[in-house]
C-alpha cells in the first residue's frame, strides 16, 4: 500500500497562497494522484479475478464440448430410428468339431417390431401381418396397434422372404432390427453336447445370444468374449463319427424296442469324447420346452449319457477283479467258489445260471458270475473298494465341460456296508452315468492311468495318475476280450477289430422305491477296441430294451446292447482310421488248371 | 468537467474514424460474432422450413426474416462499437429506464403466445421481448453504479445495484422467466465479484441462490416440472431433451448430412432453443465444437483485453456483457446435453429470433466498444509502481 496521501496537502497550498498562485490546482492535482493510485490498486485486484473468470468460462465451454463429444460418440440406443447399414459384429464364437467342421455358428436375420404412433393404417397392417404370419391374431394386433403402446415386438426372428413380405405392406410403423441368431447347421446332431442358445437382453439393433444348456452354457463367457470372437471353440467330437453313432444307435433302439439309448465313444488314452449320443434327442435350433409334469428324465432334453445315473450291472465286475489282481489277492487262474445262493443276512445273491462249484477268476468275468465277484469283493473289503472306485472317478461328477455334468454325482450308499461291497462289485447299489463308466473303462484298459473325460481340444492332455499296473491292465484286457470270444458278449465280435468288453444287465429300480422291476432293465455294453492295443472305449446303454423275435422276450445285454455296439464299432472304426487286422491268407501253392 | 471524461480515449483530432476503429477494435471477437451469425443462417436454412411449413409459409420465410433482422442487428452493433464508452453509458442508462418500464408493464400489456409465460409485446410484424433488451443496458447501469461507488465520496452503488437487480429479478420471476432472472442475477454477481466482493460473501450468495432455487421448486409448478425432468436419469425419448440427445448421437462426429436431419421435424423449438441439436445432427460434432470455440474466443478474449483496462466502469461493464453472452450460450448448449436443467434460452446470434438478435447485437456492440484498444497510461504505470509489464 502506498503511504496515505492527505486530502489537502496543506503545506503546499499555504506555500502557493503565499506565492499568490491558485491553490485549487494543487488540490486538484493531489486528488488526481489519489485517484490514479486507487484505480491501479483496483485494476491489480481485478486482474486476478478476471483471470479466474476467464478460466472458469474456458472450463465450462470445455465441459459442454466434452459432453457433446461423449454423446456424439455413443451409439443411438433409442428405438426410433437406426443408422443404415450398422454392422453387427459376429459376437458369439463358432463351435467346431475336432476337424474344424462347423457345429454352431451365427446367422444374421431380422426381428420385427412395431411403433404404433408412427402407423398410417393400423387395420391394414394387422390384417396383412396376420396373413403373413398365420400364428398371429389379427384382433390382438389391432388392439395393440391402436392402444397406448409405443413399442412392441412382433416377431423375434423372421426369414428374408417374410421380411420382404412385411416390407411390402409399406407401413412405416413396422420396423426391422438386425438379429444375430445361433444356427446349428447339423440339426439334431450332437444336440445334447451343444445344448442351445436363446436371446438375452434385446435391443432394436442387436440382441445378446446366451447359451442355455450343454457346451453353449458351460462356455458362455468364453463364447461371448469379444476378444476371442474370431477364434472358434474346438470340440473333441468328430462330426462324421457322431453322425454314424447316432444313426446306428437310433436303429438299434428301434430294433430293441428301447425307450431310450445312450452311447459314449472315448479315446482310451486321453479321455477325449469323440462321440456322445443320447436318444431321444431334439433340434437345438428349436429347443423344446422342459417337461412340466412327469419324469424329467423322459424329456428329449435329458442327456442320458451324462445326466442319467443308472445301476450299470455286471460291467462293474471288472473293477473288483482288476483291483484284486492288482493287489495280488488273486491271479487269473485262482479258483473262486461260486456255489449259490450266497447268503448274507436276509439277502441272497444268485447267478443267472448255475455255474457249478468253482470258476477261475477269468471265467467269473467271462461267465459273469455275481457270486464269484461278490466273493472277490469280500476279500477287498469296503474301504479298499471305495478308495479304488474313487480313484476311477466313479464317486464324483465327471468334470466334463457340459453344464449338466457337475449335477451328475453318482449315487453311492450312505453306509458302505459289507453287503454294499458285494452288490457294488456286480454293479448294484451304485448309480453312475454311462460317461463315468466309459472313463473308468478307459482307465482300466489304457495301461492303468486315470482318464478325465473332456470335450474341448485345448493343448496336449497330461496322463493322469496311475491307478493299476500295466500288467493288471493287460490281464483285464485279455479277460474282456475273452468275454467277446467265448462269453456273454459273443455278438460283439467285429472281424478285424478285436473287440473286448463286458455286458451288464441291471434291473431298473422302481421310481417310487420298493425293489426292482421284473421286466425293465438297463442293458449296457462297455467295450474297448482293439483289445490288444486299446484306442477307443465305447459304452452303449439301452433303456428298457426287449428282443421279441425269439420264443420268449430277451432283455439281457448280450442280446440287446452288444449287437448294437458291434454295429457301431463296425461302422465307426474305419472312420476313426483304425485298420482291420486281417489274418494273413495261408499261402497256397499255385494250382495250374487246364481243361 | 475533467472528472466526467477522465480515462476516456483522448480526442485525437485529425485521426479518421474508420481507420481508428479498425485499429482499435478486437478483430478476433468481431470475426467470431460474424461467423456465428453466418452459422446461424446456415442452420436456419435447415431448421426453420418445418416451422414455416407448419405455419403455411414459404420454406425459407424465417431465414429471410433472419437476414433482415441480422442487417438491423449488425447496423446497431457497428454503430455502437463506434461510440465512446461515455456515449454508450449515457444511452444505455436511458435505455435501461425504458426497458425497465417495458418490463414492468408486461403483465398489463404483454402476451404469452400460448406458451404459459407473459414475456412478449406483440408488435404485429414482430414480437418484442423486453428482457432481452434489458439485459445489456442493465449490465451498463450496474457497472456505472458500482464504478461510482469506488470513486472518492461516491454513492453506495453496490447496494443500489443490488436493490435494482432484486426488483428486476422479481419482475422476471413473475412472468415467470427464471432463466432470464438467473442470468440477470448471475451478471450482477460477476460484476460484484470483479468489483472486489469478499470471497466469503460470494459463497453466501451462492448459498442464497441454491436456497432460492429450492423455494422456487416448492412453489412453482412450471419450475418444478423442469427440474424433475432433469433429475430423472432416464431420458424419456419423446421429450424435447430425448430428441435432442438422440439427434446428437445420430450426428456422431461428421453428421448425417446437410438437410438429412430428423430432429427439426420433431422439435417445436428446433430453430431457437435446440438449434445446437440441429447443428449436431446435420453437421456433427465438428460444427458444434467450432461453435463452442467461437463463443469461447469472444468471451475469453474480451476478458483478456479487459485485464489491461484501468477504467473501473469499462472493466465492469465489459466483463458483465461478455459473461452474460457466454453464460447464455453455455446454458443453451448445456441444456441440450443435459448438463443443465431445461431452460428456454436462445443461443446468441445463432438462434432464430428478431428482437433477441437485435438485443444481442446491441450487447455485442457495447462489448466491442469497451474492448477497443485505448491508451492505458502504461508508461505511467512503470514510472509510478516500477513494475515491468
TrEMBL record, chain A:
<keyword id="KW-0472">Membrane</keyword>
<dbReference type="GO" id="GO:0004180">
    <property type="term" value="F:carboxypeptidase activity"/>
</dbReference>
<dbReference type="Pfam" id="PF03717">
    <property type="entry name" value="PBP_dimer"/>
</dbReference>
<dbReference type="GO" id="GO:0008658">
    <property type="term" value="F:penicillin binding"/>
</dbReference>
<dbReference type="GO" id="GO:0005886">
    <property type="term" value="C:plasma membrane"/>
</dbReference>
<keyword id="KW-0378">Hydrolase</keyword>
<protein>
    <submittedName>
        <fullName>Penicillin-binding protein 2</fullName>
    </submittedName>
</protein>
<dbReference type="InterPro" id="IPR005311">
    <property type="entry name" value="PBP_dimer"/>
</dbReference>
<feature type="transmembrane region" description="Helical">
    <location>
        <begin position="50"/>
        <end position="70"/>
    </location>
</feature>
<keyword id="KW-0121">Carboxypeptidase</keyword>
<dbReference type="GO" id="GO:0071555">
    <property type="term" value="P:cell wall organization"/>
</dbReference>
<feature type="domain" description="Penicillin-binding protein transpeptidase">
    <location>
        <begin position="262"/>
        <end position="547"/>
    </location>
</feature>
<keyword id="KW-0812">Transmembrane</keyword>
<keyword id="KW-0645">Protease</keyword>
<dbReference type="InterPro" id="IPR001460">
    <property type="entry name" value="PCN-bd_Tpept"/>
</dbReference>
<dbReference type="InterPro" id="IPR012338">
    <property type="entry name" value="Beta-lactam/transpept-like"/>
</dbReference>
<dbReference type="InterPro" id="IPR036138">
    <property type="entry name" value="PBP_dimer_sf"/>
</dbReference>
<keyword id="KW-1133">Transmembrane helix</keyword>
<dbReference type="InterPro" id="IPR050515">
    <property type="entry name" value="Beta-lactam/transpept"/>
</dbReference>
<feature type="domain" description="Penicillin-binding protein dimerisation">
    <location>
        <begin position="88"/>
        <end position="224"/>
    </location>
</feature>
<dbReference type="Pfam" id="PF00905">
    <property type="entry name" value="Transpeptidase"/>
</dbReference>
UniProtKB/TrEMBL annotation, chain B:
<keyword id="KW-0472">Membrane</keyword>
<keyword id="KW-0133">Cell shape</keyword>
<keyword id="KW-0328">Glycosyltransferase</keyword>
<dbReference type="InterPro" id="IPR013437">
    <property type="entry name" value="FtsW"/>
</dbReference>
<keyword id="KW-0131">Cell cycle</keyword>
<keyword id="KW-1003">Cell membrane</keyword>
<dbReference type="GO" id="GO:0051301">
    <property type="term" value="P:cell division"/>
</dbReference>
<keyword id="KW-0573">Peptidoglycan synthesis</keyword>
<dbReference type="GO" id="GO:0008360">
    <property type="term" value="P:regulation of cell shape"/>
</dbReference>
<feature type="transmembrane region" description="Helical">
    <location>
        <begin position="283"/>
        <end position="304"/>
    </location>
</feature>
<feature type="transmembrane region" description="Helical">
    <location>
        <begin position="28"/>
        <end position="47"/>
    </location>
</feature>
<feature type="transmembrane region" description="Helical">
    <location>
        <begin position="162"/>
        <end position="186"/>
    </location>
</feature>
<dbReference type="GO" id="GO:0071555">
    <property type="term" value="P:cell wall organization"/>
</dbReference>
<feature type="transmembrane region" description="Helical">
    <location>
        <begin position="67"/>
        <end position="84"/>
    </location>
</feature>
<protein>
    <recommendedName>
        <fullName>Probable peptidoglycan glycosyltransferase FtsW</fullName>
        <ecNumber>2.4.99.28</ecNumber>
    </recommendedName>
</protein>
<dbReference type="InterPro" id="IPR001182">
    <property type="entry name" value="FtsW/RodA"/>
</dbReference>
<dbReference type="Pfam" id="PF01098">
    <property type="entry name" value="FTSW_RODA_SPOVE"/>
</dbReference>
<keyword id="KW-0961">Cell wall biogenesis/degradation</keyword>
<feature type="transmembrane region" description="Helical">
    <location>
        <begin position="349"/>
        <end position="370"/>
    </location>
</feature>
<dbReference type="GO" id="GO:0015648">
    <property type="term" value="F:lipid-linked peptidoglycan transporter activity"/>
</dbReference>
<comment type="pathway">
    <text>Cell wall biogenesis; peptidoglycan biosynthesis.</text>
</comment>
<keyword id="KW-0808">Transferase</keyword>
Amino acid at each position: 500500500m502506498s503511504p496515505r496521501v492527505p486530502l489537502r496537502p496543506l503545506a503546499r497550498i499555504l506555500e502557493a497562497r503565499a506565492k499568490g498562485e491558485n491553490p485549487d490546482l494543487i488540490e486538484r492535482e493531489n486528488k488526481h494522484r489519489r485517484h490514479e493510485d486507487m484505480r491501479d490498486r483496483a485494476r491489480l485486484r481485478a486482474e486476478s479475478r478476471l483471470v479466474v473468470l476467464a478460466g472458469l468460462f474456458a472450463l465450462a465451454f470445455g465441459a459442454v464440448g466434452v459432453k457433446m463429444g461423449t454423446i456424439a460418440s455413443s451409439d443411438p440406443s433409442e428405438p426410433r430410428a437406426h443408422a443404415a447399414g450398422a454392422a453387427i459384429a459376429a459376437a458369439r464364437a463358432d463351435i467346431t468339431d475336432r476337424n474344424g467342421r462347423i457345429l454352431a455358428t451365427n446367422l444374421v436375420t431380422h426381428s420385427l417390431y412395431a411403433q404404433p404412433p408412427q402407423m398410417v393404417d393400423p387395420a391394414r397392417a394387422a390384417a396383412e401381418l396376420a396373413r403373413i404370419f398365420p400364428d398371429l391374431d389379427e384382433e390382438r394386433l389391432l388392439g395393440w396397434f391402436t392402444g397406448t403402446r409405443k413399442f412392441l415386438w412382433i416377431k423375434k426372428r423372421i426369414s428374408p422372404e417374410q421380411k420382404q413380405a412385411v416390407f411390402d405392406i409399406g407401413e412405416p410403423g413396422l420396423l426391422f432390427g438386425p438379429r444375430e441368431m445361433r444356427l446349428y447347421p447339423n440339426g439334431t446332431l450332437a444336440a445334447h453336447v451343444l445344448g442351445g442358445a436363446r436371446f438375452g437382453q434385446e435391443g432394436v439393433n442387436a440382441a445378446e445370444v446366451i447359451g442355455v444348456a450343454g457346451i453353449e452354457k458351460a462356455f458362455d463367457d468364453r463364447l461371448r468374449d469379444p476378444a476371442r470372437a474370431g477364434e472358434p471353440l474346438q470340440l473333441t467330437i468328430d462330426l462324421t463319427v457322431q453322425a454314424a453313432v447316432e444313426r446306428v444307435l437310433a436303429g438299434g433302439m428301434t430294433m430293441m424296442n428301447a425307450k431310450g439309448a445312450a452311447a459314449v465313444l472315448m479315446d482310451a488314452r486321453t479321455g477325449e469324447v469323440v462321440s456322445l449320443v443320447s436318444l431321444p434327442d431334439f433340434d437345438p435350433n428349436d429347443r423344446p420346452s422342459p417337461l412340466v409334469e412327469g419324469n424329467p428324465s423322459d424329456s428329449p432334453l435329458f442327456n442320458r449319457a451324462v445326466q442319467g445315473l443308472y445301476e450299470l450291472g455286471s460291467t462293474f465286475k471288472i473293477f473288483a477283479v482288476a483291483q484284486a489282481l492288482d493287489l495280488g489277492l488273486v491271479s487269473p487262474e485262482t479258483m473262486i467258489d461260486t456255489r449259490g445262493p450266497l447268503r448274507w443276512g436276509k439277502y441272497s445273491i444268485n447267478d443267472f445260471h448255475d455255474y457249478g462249484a468253482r470258476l477261475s477268476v477269468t471265467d467269473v468275468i467271462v461267465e459273469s458270475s455275481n457270486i464269484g465277484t461278490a466273493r472277490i469283493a469280500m476279500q477287498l473289503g469296503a474301504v479298499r473298494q471305495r478308495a479304488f472306485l474313487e480313484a476311477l472317478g466313479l464317486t464324483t461328477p465327471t468334470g466334463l465341460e457340459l453344464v449338466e455334468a457337475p449335477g451328475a454325482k453318482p449315487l453311492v450308499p450312505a453306509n458302505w456296508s459289507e453287503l454294499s461291497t458285494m452288490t457294488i462289485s456286480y454293479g448294484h447299489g451304485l448309480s453312475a452315468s454311462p460317461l463315468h463308466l466309459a472313463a473308468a473303462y478307459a482307465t482300466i484298459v489304457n495301461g492303468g492311468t486315470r482318464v478325465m473325460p473332456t470335450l474341448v481340444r485345448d493343448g496336449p492332455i497330461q496322463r493322469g495318475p496311475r491307478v493299476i499296473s500295466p500288467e493288471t491292465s493287460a490281464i483285464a484286457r485279455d479277460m474282456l476280450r475273452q468275454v467277446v470270444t467265448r462269453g456273454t458278449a459273443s455278438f460283439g465280435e467285429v472281424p478285424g477289430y478285436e473287440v473286448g468288453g463286458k455286458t451288464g444287465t441291471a434291473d431298473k429300480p422302481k421310481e417310487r422305491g420298493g425293489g426292482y422291476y421284473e421286466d425293465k432293465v438297463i442293458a449296457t455294453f462297455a467295450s474297448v477296441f482293439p483289445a490288444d492295443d486299446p484306442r477307443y472305449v465305447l459304452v452303449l446303454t439301452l433303456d428298457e430294451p426287449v428282443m421279441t423275435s425269439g420264443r420268449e422276450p430277451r432283455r439281457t445285454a448280450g442280446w440287446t446292447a452288444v449287437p448294437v455296439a458291434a454295429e457301431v464299432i463296425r461302422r465307426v472304426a474305419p472312420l476313426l482310421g483304425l485298420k482291420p487286422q486281417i489274418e494273413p491268407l495261408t499261402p497256397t501253392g499255385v494250382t495250374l488248371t487246364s481243361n | 468537467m475533467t472528472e466526467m471524461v477522465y480515462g476516456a480515449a483522448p480526442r485525437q483530432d485529425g485521426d479518421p474514424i474508420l481507420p481508428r476503429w479498425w485499429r482499435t477494435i478486437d478483430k478476433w471477437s468481431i470475426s467470431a460474432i460474424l461467423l456465428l451469425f453466418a452459422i446461424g443462417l446456415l442452420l436456419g436454412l435447415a431448421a426453420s422450413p418445418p416451422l414455416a411449413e407448419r405455419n403455411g409459409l414459404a420454406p425459407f420465410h424465417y431465414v429471410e426474416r433472419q437476414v433482415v433482422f441480422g442487417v438491423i442487428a449488425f447496423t446497431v452493433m457497428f454503430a455502437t462499437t463506434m461510440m465512446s464508452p461515455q456515449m454508450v453509458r449515457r444511452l444505455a442508462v436511458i435505455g435501461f429506464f425504458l426497458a425497465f418500464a417495458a418490463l414492468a408493464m408486461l403483465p398489463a400489456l404483454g402476451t404469452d403466445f400460448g406458451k404459459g409465460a407473459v414475456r412478449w409485446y406483440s408488435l404485429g410484424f414482430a414480437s418484442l421481448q423486453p428482457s432481452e433488451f434489458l439485459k445489456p443496458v442493465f449490465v451498463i447501469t450496474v457497472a456505472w453504479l458500482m464504478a461510482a461507488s469506488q470513486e472518492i465520496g461516491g454513492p453506495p452503488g453496490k447496494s443500489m445495484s443490488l436493490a435494482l437487480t432484486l426488483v428486476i429479478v422479481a419482475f422476471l420471476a413473475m412472468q415467470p422467466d427464471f432463466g432470464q432472472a438467473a442470468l440477470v442475477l448471475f451478471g450482477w454477481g460477476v460484476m460484484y465479484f470483479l468489483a472486489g466482493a469478499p470471497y466469503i460473501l460470494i459463497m453466501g450468495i451462492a448459498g442464497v441462490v441454491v436456497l432460492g432455487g429450492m423455494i422456487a421448486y416448492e412453489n412453482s409448478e412450471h419450475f418444478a416440472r423442469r427440474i424433475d425432468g432433469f433429475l430423472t436419469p432416464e431420458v424419456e425419448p419423446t421429450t424435447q431433451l430425448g430428441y435432442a440427445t438422440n439427434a446428437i448421437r445420430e450426428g456422431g462426429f461428421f453428421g448425417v448430412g446437410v438437410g438429412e436431419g430428423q430432429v427439426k421435424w420433431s422439435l417445436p423449438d428446433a430453430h431457437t432453443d435446440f438449434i445446437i441439436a440441429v447443428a449436431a445432427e446435420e453437421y456433427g460434432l465438428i460444427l458444434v465444437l467450432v461453435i463452442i470455440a467461437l463463443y469461447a474466443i469472444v468471451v475469453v478474449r474480451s476478458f483478456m483485453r479487459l485485464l489491461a483496462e484501468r477504467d473501473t466502469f469499462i472493466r465492469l461493464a465489459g466483463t458483465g456483457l461478455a459473461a452474460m453472452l457466454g453464460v447464455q450460450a453455455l446454458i443453451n448448449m448445456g441444456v441440450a446435453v443435459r448438463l443443465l436443467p431445461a431452460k428456454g434460452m436462445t443461443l446468441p446470434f445463432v438462434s432464430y429470433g428478431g428482437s433477441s438478435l437485435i438485443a444481442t447485437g446491441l450487447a455485442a456492440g457495447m462489448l466491442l466498444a469497451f474492448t477497443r484498444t485505448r491508451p492505458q497510461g502504461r508508461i505511467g504505470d512503470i514510472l509510478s509502481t516500477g513494475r515491468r509489464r
